[in-house]
């Protein structure tokens, strides 16, 4: 699956972090956040950080970057979303 196929899919994928990105691509921040809130993996923590950065809550985003064991992303939100999708789709 490619990032474009993910965005065009009529249903979210089974993998939680990708499902969160699917919801986010549809403008449903709350649904995306709910998916990662209940997932304690480092992958979900990275998406969680992205979502809080997108929300503008940088302090909370930093907490989740730490939980994900990732450096704070400083490029654009679109670039981070692409990096997330690429990391997960590449598996």
Explain this structure:
The structure is a single chain. With 91 residues, this protein is an all-alpha fold. It has one domain: Serine Threonine Protein Phosphatase 5, Tetratricopeptide repeat. Helix content is 69%, strand content 0%. It has 6 helices and no strands. The protein has helices at 3-8, 16-25, 29-37, 42-55, 58-68, 77-89. Helix 4 (42-55) packs antiparallel against helix 6 (77-89). It is globular and about 35 Å long.
By helix and strand content, what is the structural category? mainly alpha
> In CATH's first tier, which class applies?
Mainly Alpha
Shape by Cα distribution? globular
Distance between the ends: 10 Å
On the 0 to 100 scale, the average pLDDT is 94
Instruction: Evaluate the radius of gyration.
Output: 12 Å
Number of domains: 1
Assembly state of the chains shown: single chain
Number of strands: 0
What is the element string, with H for helices and E for strands?
A: HHHHHH
Largest beta sheet, briefly? Answer: none
| CATH-assigned fold name | Serine Threonine Protein Phosphatase 5, Tetratricopeptide repeat
Q: Which stretches are poorly predicted, pLDDT < 50 over at least 5 residues?
A: none
Percent strand:
under 5%
Annotate the secondary structure layout.
Elements: H1 3-8, H2 16-25, H3 29-37, H4 42-55, H5 58-68, H6 77-89
């Amino acid at each position: 699956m490619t990032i474009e196929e993910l965005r065009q899919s009529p249903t979210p994928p089974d993998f939680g972090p990708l499902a969160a990105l699917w919801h986010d691509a549809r403008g449903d921040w709350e649904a995306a956040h709910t998916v990662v809130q209940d997932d304690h993996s480092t992958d979900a923590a990275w998406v969680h950080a992205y979502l809080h950065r997108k929300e503008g809550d940088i302090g909370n985003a930093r907490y989740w970057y730490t939980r994900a064991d990732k450096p704070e992303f400083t490029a654009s939100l679109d670039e981070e979303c692409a990096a997330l999708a690429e990391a997960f789709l590449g598996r």
